[in-house]
Amino acid sequence: MIDNYQTTIAKQVKFSGIGLHTGQNSNISVMPAEDQEGIVFKRVDLKENNIIEANYLNVSSAKLCTTLKNNFGVKVSTVEHLLGALYIAEIDNAIIEIDSEEIPIMDGSAKIFLEKFKKAGIKTLSKKRKFFKITSKVELVDGERKISAEPEGGNTLEVEFQLNYKNKIIGNQKNIINFKEDDLEDISKSRTFCLYQDIEKIKKEGLAKGGSLDNAIVIDDEKILNKEGLRNEKEFVNHKILDLAGDFFLSGYRILGKIKCNQGGHELTNKFLRKLFKNSFISSTEEKSNQIIVKENILNTAKKIAASA
Hints:
Low-confidence stretches: 287-309
Mean pLDDT: 90
Number of strands: 21
Helix content: 10-25%
Number of helices: 7
Order of helices and strands: EEEEEEEEHEHEEEEEEHEHEEHEHEEH
Shape: globular
Radius of gyration: 18 Å
Distance between the termini: 28 Å
């Protein structure tokens, strides 16, 4: 997974579909970008103040999805699956044009995004790729939810995720994924999910207007309502790992270390990134000739990001 140089997509890729929460159709174009641009969203349905950086400091809401907002109040939501696909595809820089507020949910996973990225190809750029190497344990506990980062796993990201549901179908699922060594196909094609009894409540809150069995797994007591069933044995926890990878990519870096998460989600991940970036014992790193070179203190980097957001 660790290559020396930044990348972008080789040519433009387009997607269309319904938004999971807004229920509105949207069209997006993922286009090549230059070194150091990172991931940038552009609302082409708006004529001004329409640029939104994919940055953890721009997260305005993390309720059932990750929503980004710029200083002018312009939003783009449900970005996590697309960001997870970009992370897995190892695309560091891209401009994403969208004509609505929400990224299309597609099939509820990152599968379709990744298939098109693979066909388009990846272009290597000239600048070095950026990394964060975890050097000391950082932990965040919020009731029964917990997430931590530890200096394990070598020069890659390793995620250990634990789900604990009273529902018998989901149950207590756990998986450990090394993003360098493991096959990520099951992660990329695992879909978002919900309990049938929660749907009415979610819709009363103005969410999931575009949800269906075509883009989400729905569990009713001890039965999966989707006719095709699950795509893999641990699809529930694997989707949570996909979400986490997408949300972590909002750091603008590829984090090297082991992430342990229990009962987490978008909100917990964003709180954790904010805490992580405040700790001076985390170092910003750059890969060069297979050696990790410490470049600058993370605290200073966090200030720079905040100033440019």
